[in-house]
Specification:
This protein is α+β, with helices and mostly antiparallel strands. The strands form four sheets. Strands 12, 15, 16, 17, 18, 19 and 20 form a seven-stranded mixed sheet that branches. A six-stranded antiparallel sheet has the order 3-6-8-1-11-9, with no helix packed on it. The protein has a five-stranded antiparallel sheet with strand order 7-2-4-5-10, with no helix packed on it. The N and C termini lie far apart (about 75 Å). About 35% of the residues are buried.
């Protein structure tokens, strides 16, 4: 028998610690070599930690949400191979779920200190509220139609599930149905620990709002002409060309607008007091994923056509949603676009992606009446809600930038004119 301690591997250049976001094992579980035993997160990348040996887990060194230093003990595994006490075994390299952090392999060492008390980390199970009876949707509908409160019934199905027959028998017995469900006072509370990407987002938002004095400028844009052009281009596109949304047009409009307002396409080091204006336009696109909000970046949008912007945008959005975006693809933006599509609302106050100085928020398109000089006509209207770092961008400059974007979107032919 031998006991080995697996240390936290080096998961990326300059990274001193990582957050534990998932255990795939618990104390007492058997593991095989190369089996993933844990997942940690650093920056925006999730990294899977494989086991270098086959054996049984006897101790876990951290709980979900804990920060673990590189080379710190992570897990102990008991093996049956009779390894020598002084043997040092290298674990396989950590597997980056987002393909972003390739570091040196983890090192495991023989057990040389007293084994600490075994810690069993249990995965929480979803709790079912006690006041909610177990029944299928069709049974719930049948009960509602007959004014029956299912909490008055005892189910005869598996694990107490209420069946349709139970409701029918309740009605047949002549029991008075409860037409008005009882109103009960709820006193329960639930504490949810922020871990992983959710905690990263919280830290990023706190940093941005605490250090950047925001100014938000909202302007209405007539998207009728652009929507007509977009429909025509999508109808006539080649099979290999991606379907166009409004975002590629907006990206090209931003490229033209920042050429006239270079301070908008910049990052600000507020500790050193240095503003860096960027010639390249790297546009971050805020993207909602099952794990939370991430910002993949379309690099060098100034050198891409409408179709190229659309293709790269689609590729990055899919990579972000599936967790395969690289670290480089999730960083390095110089200005960000935030869009919730049909859920975009009328107005928003987007938070700047620190250390950038501007973010362009896209609200939903809605048909609204617009006066053309003689009468009101239906037009496809959309608001842009854009926020700026007021330390760098004055109100006049913010308005000038947004107005230039508006003109380009309202007269989309201008987007295609070079120079």
């Amino acid at each position: 028998m031998g006991e080995f301690i697996i240390k936290m591997p080096d998961v990326g250049e300059g990274v001193a610690e990582a957050e534990l976001v998932e255990w795939h094992v618990k104390a007492g579980d058997p593991v095989k070599e190369d089996m993933v035993i844990a997942a940690v997160m650093t920056d925006k990348a999730t990294v899977e930690i494989p086991s270098p040996v086959t054996g049984t887990v006897i101790w876990l060194g951290a709980e979900i949400g804990d920060k673990i230093a590189v080379k710190a003990p992570l897990v102990r595994i008991e093996t049956s191979g009779g390894e020598a006490n002084n043997q040092v075994v290298e674990a396989p390299p950590a597997k980056a779920a987002a393909k972003v952090l390739d570091g040196p392999p983890a090192i495991i060492e023989p057990e040389i200190t007293p084994t600490p008390k075994t810690v069993s980390v249990q995965r929480p199970e979803a709790a079912v509220p006690a006041e909610k009876p177990l029944a299928s949707p069709s049974v719930r509908l049948f009960a509602r139609e007959n004014g029956v409160d299912l909490r008055q019934l005892k189910g005869s199905g598996p694990v107490g599930r209420i069946l349709r027959e139970d409701v029918e028998q309740f009605i047949a017995r002549g029991d008075k149905p409860s037409l008005q469900p009882a109103i009960t006072k709820k006193t329960s509370t639930e504490e949810v620990k922020l871990t992983g990407l959710r905690r990263r987002i919280a830290e990023k938002m706190s940093l941005s709002t605490s250090r950047i004095p925001h100014i938000t400028y909202v302007e209405e844009v007539d998207m009728t002409a652009l929507e007509e052009l977009r429909a025509t281009m999508n109808r006539d596109r080649k099979p290999e060309q991606p379907k166009l949304t409004i975002l590629p047009f907006l990206m090209r409009a931003i490229v033209k607008a920042v050429a006239e307002q270079p301070n908008v396409n910049a990052t600000f080091d507020d500790e050193r007091g240095i503003l860096t204006r960027h010639g390249a336009v790297h546009i971050g696109i805020a993207t909602q994923t099952p794990a939370g909000l991430v910002v993949p970046v379309v690099k060098n949008a100034e050198a891409r056509s409408i179709w190229e912007c659309a293709g790269e945008l689609n590729r990055l959005a899919e990579a972000a949603r599936t967790g395969t975006a690289t670290r480089d693809e999730l960083g390095g933006s110089t200005i960000t676009v935030s869009s919730l599509g049909a859920l975009g609302g009328i107005v928003s106050t987007p938070v700047i992606n620190h250390p950038e100085v501007a973010i362009v928020g896209v609200n939903k398109i809605a048909v609204r009446p617009a006066f053309d000089g003689t009468q009101f006509v239906p037009r496809k209207m959309m608001n842009l809600s854009s926020s700026f770092d007021h330390r760098i961008i004055d109100g006049w400059d913010a308005a000038t930038f947004v107005q230039r974007v508006r003109v380009l979107l309202e007269t989309p032919a201008l987007i295609f004119i070079e120079g």
